[in-house]
Amino acid sequence: MSNDENIYRQMLNAIVEHQLPPGARLPEDRLSEAFGVSRTGIRKVLQRLALEHFVIIEKNKGAQVNRPSEAEALEVLDSRILIEPQLIPALLDHWNTEHSERFRIMVTEEKRAEEANQLADSIQLTARFHYELAKLSGNQVLASFVEQLCYRSSLILAAYGTRGSVGCECGDHSQLLDILDQGRKDEAKTWMSHHLKHIKSSLILESKPEENIDFQRLFGR
Amino acid sequence: MSNDENIYRQMLNAIVEHQLPPGARLPEDRLSEAFGVSRTGIRKVLQRLALEHFVIIEKNKGAQVNRPSEAEALEVLDSRILIEPQLIPALLDHWNTEHSERFRIMVTEEKRAEEANQLADSIQLTARFHYELAKLSGNQVLASFVEQLCYRSSLILAAYGTRGSVGCECGDHSQLLDILDQGRKDEAKTWMSHHLKHIKSSLILESKPEENIDFQRLFGR
DNA sequence: AATGAATTAATTGTGCACAATATTGGTGTG
DNA sequence: CACACCAATATTGTGCACAATTAATTCATT
């Protein structure tokens, strides 16, 4: 694996697992020291993470882990609600027992991670479940978009999620597999839709402190 | 406007307008010379273009304009078919005469550009029409994804499009505006779907030269 | 003690130099 | 003449140094 990709993965993991919480600053010096490469390499990775909305780079102020706005949070979930259910039909065309078994193993791991309270693994596995499912649709363009949305969702749950739940309960995911095994296309679509809407509605909005208070609007004029 | 963004826009324009055709090599030296900045700045732009699939960077071999594979071309169009029609309902919620007028001006410009045989402007305007429409859905996440897909479509049409047509005829776009003005939601959705499927089916596949010719298969054995 | 200016420190932006790698052309040998 | 090997060239990869900017601290003044 290339060195860049390695660093990128490690940082992305740290972000979606909330080891680097939203708002955490990411000074290039420390990172270059930590990874044993020059700032040049770090900057490349940060640029990429910024384009994918995992970090925010402000000119002359450096990078920090993105703190998704409420609007962004809702839009990401809405995007998933619009896309993921629509992938089910194509997915079912390729669905077979091999896939079923593979995903059931994943769900088992999810369950174990959640019971062991290993938040990091739990988050990763939840996102991977949705991404791997999307890949089976056969459309790699959409799949990689779903991948990005899933990881962004992890970040969103860090900011707005109900504590303890990472969004989808594992039981839920095995439910979907049952439906897929029975080839019930429409049911699977609506299940996925409900599942994502459930996550969306579980977000706790308007409770976090505002980052930029609009004093002008509050007192001005 | 920042310098990076400026260079990025210029290069992206050159690519989607086919001034830099698929396969064109992009040596960092020449570009840094042309733009009057150091290779550092150029590399940043190239990295970004690569992440967005407009150029391909191979290790130690540099960047070149992406030549989309047939599979990629179909996947991009399929993605648009899946997303863009679904944006219509939300779009219609905000639709008003101001929007209508703005888009009719755009269509007029499209028509003029096409008649004047200004391929570059024509391509830009066609992509912008779809992107601006997507923005009106209110979901910026999906809109910027659509933007990327539209620009990638331009690149695809460079490789697989029928000569003379850039995909959508302008008459078509004004048709959609008529339907939107009448608030016919379902009709607009199906129109958009048909429109994109028409573009997809107009692609001339398996006719362009392969990027990596398999000489072994072609002559060997 | 509070405020504001000025200095200091920390961090990022940018260009350059050298190392690493791939490609091309040439040379020699069988 | 074919083949392999080697050398030269061109291009990218990476680290470093210095400039530019922002943030923090100090200090002076009221």
Most extensive chain-chain interface: A-B, 22 and 22 residues
CATH level 3 topology of the largest domain in chain A: Four Helix Bundle (Hemerythrin (Met), subunit A)
The helix/strand class of chain A is: mainly alpha
Oligomer: homodimer
**Strand fraction band of chain A?**
under 5%
The description of the largest β-sheet of chain A is: 3 strands, antiparallel
Number of contiguous helices of chain A: 10
Question: What is the name of the CATH architecture of the largest domain in chain A?
Answer: Up-down Bundle
Question: Roughly what percent helix of chain A?
Answer: 55-70%
Number of domains of chain A: 2
Helix/strand order of chain A, N-terminal first:
HEHHEEHHHHHHH
Broad shape of chain A = globular
CATH class of the largest domain in chain A: Mainly Alpha
Number of strands of chain A: 3
Radius of gyration of chain A: 19 Å
Mean pLDDT of chain A: 90
| Low-confidence blocks of residues of chain A | 208-218
Could you explain the architecture of this structure?
The structure is a homodimer of 221-residue chains. With 221 residues, chain A is mostly helical. Chain A has 2 domains: 3-65, Winged helix-like DNA-binding domain superfamily/Winged helix DNA-binding domain (Arc Repressor Mutant, subunit A, Orthogonal Bundle); 70-201, Four Helix Bundle (Hemerythrin (Met), subunit A). The first copy, chain A, has 10 helices and 3 strands. Chain A has a 3-stranded antiparallel β-sheet with strand order 1-3-2. In chain A, a hairpin with a 3-residue loop joins strand 2 and strand 3. In chain A, helix 5 packs antiparallel against helix 8 (170-181) and helix 8 (170-181) runs antiparallel to helix 9. The radius of gyration of chain A is 19 Å and the shape is globular. The model of chain A is unreliable at 208-218 (pLDDT under 50). Chains A and B meet through helix 3, helix 4 and helix 7 of A and helix 3, helix 4 and helix 7 of B. Chain A binds a DNA duplex (30 and 30 nucleotides) through helix 3. Chains A, B: Pfam families: FCD, GntR. Chains A, B: This is DNA-binding transcriptional regulator, GntR family. Chains A, B: GO terms for molecular function: DNA binding; DNA-binding transcription factor activity.
